[in-house]
């Protein structure tokens, strides 16, 4: 605890220093250029080796200046770095006190810090950097976030629910915009509120801006409480595609706001434009993704620049989309397409690098956006109008709730797993507004005479939703989820067996795959296997020696870990200890005091594996996916395989001698190691790699298990399944090539 | 890969499977199943353990091996489509109208008892109808992370047995298993929503 306090104190002093620095050198203030000259070094003893007849240089002489400062030259990058550092220190500071981030979402905290900094800056009459101006936001801050969303998008759940997601995003946004716009226009007619001069077009424009949903904070909460996958992916997808629709609507309405009268042809053209924008974005994304994948096919000799392609191509795609004014958010299709092929082509290190850098960039962008939200709030001029703002809040809430309700009723019959009312409430309540809304409102042209009111209203909505909804969503959802009554009779048996059953069911679900939309998936798979994979993937042969060496080292370190006498990783009691245990069967029964039992409950609750929720792990914006648990499970299987092999090599491997419980691991004792590494995937005919032979797993009675431990089998390496486990690179010992592992370590 | 002895599924067989498992859609099931998980074509094939082990999600399921094993009858290494559907039928949701009507003499495969039996068999590997302490320990070890020592796990296992054991034989029989889980909503937990 003491250390934490010291860190906190150091963090705080660092903040203060940074704040002071920023205030002194902030924003648009006059740049302190100082011409280096003799006046600067008055009083500085010349320790330099230039021969000087006098100790102090005289004014007329132009001597070599010892100490010069040219601030204007470095001003922009310097300030940028300081801002980023400040925001990052804020993030470090939050996570020192864990409890804070549980109850208050990070975005709230960042806004608060931004408010404080903004207050300081305002009091010293500085202006903040124009970070949230249109160009900087859309060209520099939004692309990393888009790339991050696309790159870590869980493809299988997404494509299963794509209809629902698009339905909510497109129709929902339209519903919200039009609804809020109309209602606000109706309110404007009332004289008492003093906003009569806002016409319908401007209302619609404003409504389209504030219907942009950004559920980042809600997603964090949902992940912590393990909400079910369907809700998660729908909220995530809706937040993503919603931006695209909002931008289109915004452009449409801002165009319309200029012209005095709207004709029906314009409406029709608007719809056409929407289609062009969205389809264009999708197609461009896929195109660039394919080109990127193709490029990485040839990079096996220049591994260092591999990550570069991912970033450059996606940024290029984004800029081209901005050039043609098509939706840049839909460029996430670029990331989705790219990732699948690129991760097979590039080396493991490049893969890790790419993932880390994507996360870092997205994290910085996100942090800065919320931070500057706070700063700019203080420093802009506001115009407050109680009626308008309150009604905006009210209508935003009402229309979103209504929208979700109506839309869900319509789409539920088409869904395999329909949404219950609790799900709908979760969906409606997670409609937080965020950065896109803010940036868009700043790009409103000045021709709109109530611009300041709009700005204030948007800021008010953002603050309200982020703070109130963001903070309250956790208690509400937790309250709703508690279906079982928490009585003390919930004993250990129920806990263990419930978890077992959950694992079973999730296993069976994985076994069955998905049960709908199979037709298109099948078609795509065939197309993929026959055409795309051949073009875009380098022929999957053995990786370079460096990579295989890395894998071998990984495996050996894993083996060493198992060899040390740690009881923790033992998958099962070995044969010998089983016999010992049976002798102990007649031990006297112990009595367990309640404190012990509670202890056990805690231990179990903390340490039992949760069932797989791949979606959630991969879409968390602040963390890379955590694979320690899969590693543990795989190491354990590995060790059980080893154990069964070792057992068989030391004893008569007839089936009677081996207790039945030993049989039911993934490897029958005495049979081939090749089939033991069960993550071997089938080859989809990629390049017709016929060098691999599939040695079938034969029943135990037929084999002579003697030579088995001494052989060095070739292990089949085949391609990944679409959307299954794309990140096999983290389990190097499971993905092996024919020349890497030799299993003589067993013998 | 997946198709060995080709036993064509004829119409009669499909009817029998439907009656036995109660799955109305099982006729179309092979088409559905053929994409991600099991090999295609499924109609004529027989599955081996390899086919199941290929599924990556099962590989990182803590109980993956045992689940795979549950599909294969005792001592065999292959299962045909009928056997596969039989096992899968355990996970059909229980419909309300089934609870009331007097079913066939044998209980439907997805009754609560049979669901519990499935789970019980996952623990009880040697099929002696008792979960011994070691078997419980094995499953516990698989489900728990590396931070727990063997002693802690041992005492948890002891406590589990103590809670459930009523006849003092230091192991859990199926009846004791059922009794201790009587408050748990097994029908809902052990059902997959899209099997009808």
Automatic annotation (TrEMBL), chain A:
TM stretches of this protein: 74-94, 101-124, 136-153, 165-192, 204-222, 231-250, 270-294, 315-338, 358-379, 386-407, 427-444, 453-473
Main location per the UniProt record: membrane
Spell out the molecular function terms from Gene Ontology: potassium:proton antiporter activity; sodium:proton antiporter activity
Subcellular localization(s) per the UniProt record: Cell membrane
BP GO terms, sorted: regulation of intracellular pH; sodium ion import across plasma membrane
- Can you give the residue ranges of the Sodium/hydrogen exchanger regulatory region domain? 571-677
Q: Which Pfam families match?
A: Na_H_Exchanger, NEXCaM_BD
Q: Where is the signal peptide?
A: 1-29
Entry's InterPro entries?
Cation/H_exchanger_CPA1, Cation/H_exchanger_TM, NaH_exchanger, NHE_CaM-bd
* Cation/H+ exchanger transmembrane domain span: 85-478
Keywords per UniProt = Antiport, Cell membrane, Ion transport, Membrane, Signal, Sodium, Sodium transport, Transmembrane, Transmembrane helix, Transport
Region entry Disordered, spans: 35-58, 681-723
Give the way it sits in the membrane. Multi-pass membrane protein
Q: Which GO terms describe its cellular component?
A: plasma membrane
Q: Which family does it belong to?
A: Belongs to the monovalent cation:proton antiporter 1 (CPA1) transporter (TC 2.A.36) family.
Q: What is this protein called?
A: Sodium/hydrogen exchanger
The protein's organism comes out as: Periophthalmus magnuspinnatus
UniProtKB/TrEMBL annotation, chain B:
Q: Which GO terms describe its biological process?
A: protein transport
The record, for PROSITE patterns, names:
EF_HAND_1 (PS00018), EF_HAND_2 (PS50222)
- List, alphabetically, the SUPFAM superfamilies matched: EF-hand
A Pfam match is EF-hand_7
Query: Which residues are the signal sequence here?
Result: none
- Please indicate which superkingdom the organism of origin belongs to: Eukaryota
Give the InterPro entries listed for this entry. Calcineurin_B_homologous (IPR051875), EF-hand-dom_pair (IPR011992), EF_Hand_1_Ca_BS (IPR018247), EF_hand_dom (IPR002048)
| Localization terms from the record | Cell membrane; Cytoplasm; Nucleus
Q: What is this protein called?
A: EF-hand domain-containing protein
Species, as recorded:
Periophthalmus magnuspinnatus
């Amino acid at each position: 605890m003491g250390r934490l306090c010291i860190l906190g104190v150091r963090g705080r002093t660092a903040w203060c220093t940074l704040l002071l620095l920023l205030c002194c050198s902030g924003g648009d203030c006059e740049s302190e250029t100082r011409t280096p000259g003799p006046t600067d070094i008055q009083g500085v003893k010349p320790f330099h080796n230039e021969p000087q007849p006098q100790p102090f240089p005289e004014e007329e002489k132009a001597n070599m200046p010892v100490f010069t400062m040219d601030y204007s030259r470095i001003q922009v990058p310097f300030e940028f770095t300081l801002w980023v550092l400040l925001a990052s220190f804020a993030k470090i500071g939050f996570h020192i006190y864990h409890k804070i981030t549980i109850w208050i979402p990070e975005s709230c905290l960042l806004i608060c810090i931004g408010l404080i900094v903004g207050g300081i800056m305002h009091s010293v009459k500085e202006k903040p950097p124009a970070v949230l101006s249109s160009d900087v936001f859309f060209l520099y801050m939004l692309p990393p976030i888009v790339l991050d969303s696309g790159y870590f998008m869980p493809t299988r759940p997404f494509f299963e629910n794509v209809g629902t997601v698009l339905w909510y995003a497109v129709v929902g946004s339209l519903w919200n915009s039009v609804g809020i716009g109309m209602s606000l226009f109706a309110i404007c007619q009332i004289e008492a509120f003093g906003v009569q001069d806002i016409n319908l077009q401007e209302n619609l424009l404003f409504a389209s801006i504030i219907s942009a949903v950004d559920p980042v904070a809600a997603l964090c909460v949902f992940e912590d409480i393990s909400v079910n996958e369907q809700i998660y992916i729908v909220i995530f997808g809706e937040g993503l595609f919603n931006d695209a629709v909002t931008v289109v609507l915004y452009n449409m309405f801002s165009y319309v706001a200029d012209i005095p009268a709207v004709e029906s042809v314009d409406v029709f053209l608007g719809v056409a434009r929407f289609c062009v924008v969205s389809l264009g974005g999708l197609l461009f994304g896929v195109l660039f993704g394919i080109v990127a994948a193709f490029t990485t096919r040839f990079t096996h000799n220049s591994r260092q620049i591999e990550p570069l392609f991912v970033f450059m191509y996606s940024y290029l795609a984004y800029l081209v989309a901005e050039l043609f004014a098509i939706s840049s958010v839909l460029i996430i299709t670029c990331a989705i397409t790219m990732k699948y092929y690129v991760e097979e082509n590039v080396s493991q290190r490049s893969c890790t690098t790419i993932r880390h850098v994507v996360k870092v960039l997205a994290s910085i962008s996100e942090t800065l956006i919320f931070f500057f939200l706070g700063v700019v709030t203080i420093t802009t001029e506001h115009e407050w109008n109680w009626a308008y703002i309150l009604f905006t809040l009210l209508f935003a809430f009402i229309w979103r709730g209504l929208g979700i309700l109506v839309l869900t009723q319509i789409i539920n019959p088409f869904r395999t797993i329909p949404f219950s009312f609790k799900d709908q409430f979760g969906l409606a309540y997670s409609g937080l507004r965020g950065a896109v809304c803010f940036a868009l409102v700043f790009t409103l042209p000045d021709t709109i005479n109530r611009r300041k009111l709009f700005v204030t209203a948007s800021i008010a909505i953002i603050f309200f939703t982020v703070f109130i909804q963001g903070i309250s969503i956790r208690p509400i959802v937790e309250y709703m989820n508690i279906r079982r009554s928490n009585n003390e009779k919930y004993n250990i048996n129920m806990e263990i067996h419930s978890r077992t059953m959950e694992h079973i069911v999730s296993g069976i679900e994985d076994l069955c795959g998905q049960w709908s939309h199979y037709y298109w998936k099948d078609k795509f798979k065939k197309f993929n296997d026959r055409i795309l994979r051949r073009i875009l993937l380098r022929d999957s042969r053995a990786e370079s020696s460096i990579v295989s060496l890395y894998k071998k080292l990984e495996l050996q370190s894993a083996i060493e870990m198992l060899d040390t006498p740690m009881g923790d990783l033992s998958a099962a009691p070995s044969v010998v200890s089983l016999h010992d245990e049976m002798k102990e069967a007649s031990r006297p029964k112990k009595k367990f005091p309640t404190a012990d039992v509670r202890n056990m409950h805690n231990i179990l609750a903390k340490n039992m594996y949760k069932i797989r929720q791949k979606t959630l792990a991969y879409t968390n914006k602040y963390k890379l996916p955590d694979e320690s648990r899969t590693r543990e499970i795989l190491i354990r299987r590995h060790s059980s395989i080893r154990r069964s092999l070792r057992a068989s090599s030391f004893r008569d491997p007839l089936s009677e001698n081996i207790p039945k419980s030993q049989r039911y691991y993934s490897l029958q004792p005495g049979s081939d190691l090749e089939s033991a590494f069960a993550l071997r995937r089938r080859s989809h005919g990629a390049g017709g790699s016929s060098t691999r032979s599939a040695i079938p797993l034969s029943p135990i009675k037929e084999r002579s298990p003697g030579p088995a431990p001494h052989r060095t089998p070739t292990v089949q390496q085949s391609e990944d399944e679409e959307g299954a486990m794309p990140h096999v690179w983290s389990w190097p010992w499971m993905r092996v090539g024919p020349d890497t592992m030799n299993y003589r370590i067993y013998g | 890969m997946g198709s060995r002895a080709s036993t064509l599924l004829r119409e009669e067989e499909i009817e029998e499977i439907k009656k036995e498992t109660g799955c109305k859609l099982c006729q179309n099931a092979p088409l559905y199943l053929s994409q991600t998980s099991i090999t295609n074509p499924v109609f004529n094939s027989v599955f081996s353990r390899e086919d199941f082990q290929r599924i990556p999600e099962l590989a990182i399921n803590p109980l993956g091996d045992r689940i795979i094993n549950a599909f294969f009858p005792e001592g065999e290494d292959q299962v045909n489509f009928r056997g596969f559907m039989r096992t899968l039928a355990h996970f059909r949701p229980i419909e309300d109208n089934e609870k009331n009507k007097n079913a066939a003499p044998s209980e439907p495969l997805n009754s609560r008892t049979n669901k519990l039996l499935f789970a019980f068999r996952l623990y009880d590997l040697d099929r002696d109808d008792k979960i011994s302490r070691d078997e419980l320990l094995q499953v516990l070890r698989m489900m728990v992370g590396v931070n727990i020592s063997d002693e802690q796990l041992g005492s948890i296992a002891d406590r589990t047995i103590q809670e459930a054991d009523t006849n003092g034989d230091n192991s859990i029989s199926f009846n004791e298993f059922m009794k201790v889980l009587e408050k748990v909503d097994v029908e809902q937990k052990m059902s997959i929503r899209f099997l009808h």
